[in-house]
Every structure is written in structure tokens, then in C-alpha cells.
């Protein structure tokens, strides 16, 4: 990732919106692969993806803070270039098997059905948890994050 590109993108946005804060976290959606980063990043830029979720336990294991409402983050593409700035509008803690159809649709993936969302997230969380020696269960506590895009990097689209 070019830190300069990320910093420049943030500083331009912050200046235009009179924000006096350092650059927020910059990260890529998915499993870290270029393909998934590009695919999910493009859904964010298009407005199809306004939600995401993560396993609560992964935040603890990796020592990361859980996002807060009003927090900004920078979404990267599969090459770690800045795509968009998002702002969290809602954070909920929900068990995997209690996620609503509306939230599943907000993730903007596949055919937008709950069944697709559930099936693909079982695969993803099974893989992710196995990296930490953990086993997936349908009661896995998720951090469900709803966000809005506040800036698209015009240089990347």
C-alpha cells in the first residue's frame, strides 16, 4: 500500500470537510486477496454494499478496536490503493443465525439473498476462525456494521 496515496486521499477529504483528525484505518474487504478486495471494493463504490460484518472474537484475538458509530475508515482495492472513505452509521452485535435479511442484503453480494449471504459467510468464517484454531458455530457473535460512502477516490474509478 502506498501510505502517501492513502494519506493524500484522506488529507484532501479532511481539508475539504474541515476535519482536523489524522488518517483513519485503511483496509481491504474480504480475505486479503486481490480478487476479493477488488470485487467488494467495487460494490462499496457503486453503492451496492452498505454493510459488512466481522466475527467479534477476531477483534479480541487481533487486538483491534471494534468500530464505533461516526468513525471513518478508508476502503482499499485489491492493490491496496484507496477507493473510498466510509463513515459508520450503525454498529450492532448479532449472532450469525440471527442476522436479518435486510442486513444480509446490505452487504450487496451475490444474488442479494439471505441464503447466499449465509452460505458464503459460513465458508468465510469457517476459514477465518480456523486460522486461529477456532471452530465456526451458527451462534458466532458478529459485529454488524452499517456505513455510508462519504467520498470516492476519483483517481481510482
Describe what this molecule looks like in 3D:
By secondary structure, the chain is α+β, with helices and mostly antiparallel strands. The protein has a single domain, classed as Sulfate adenylyltransferase, CATH 3.10.400.10. The chain has helices at residues 3-16, 34-46, 56-61, 101-106, 114-130, and strands at 26-28, 51-55, 72-76, 82-95, 141-152. A 5-stranded mixed beta sheet has the order 1-3-4-5-2, with helices on both faces. The chain is globular, with a radius of gyration of 15 Å.
Topology:
Layout: H1 3-16, E1 26-28, H2 34-46, E2 51-55, H3 56-61, E3 72-76, E4 82-95, H4 101-106, H5 114-130, E5 141-152
Please indicate the count of domains. Answer: 1
Please identify the structural class as seen in this structure.
alpha+beta
Helix content bin: 25-40%
Architecture (CATH level 2) name: Roll
- Beta percentage is 15-25%
pLDDT averaged over residues: 94
Name of the level-1 CATH class = Alpha Beta
Number of helices: 5
Order of helices and strands: HEHEHEEHHE
Strand order of the largest sheet: 1-3-4-5-2
Overall number of strands: 5
Principal-axis shape equals globular
Radius of gyration: 15 Å
Pick out the low-confidence regions: none
Major sheet characteristics: 5 strands, mixed
CATH superfamily: Sulfate adenylyltransferase
Q: What fold name goes in the CATH topology slot?
A: Sulfate adenylyltransferase
Span from first to last CA? 17 Å
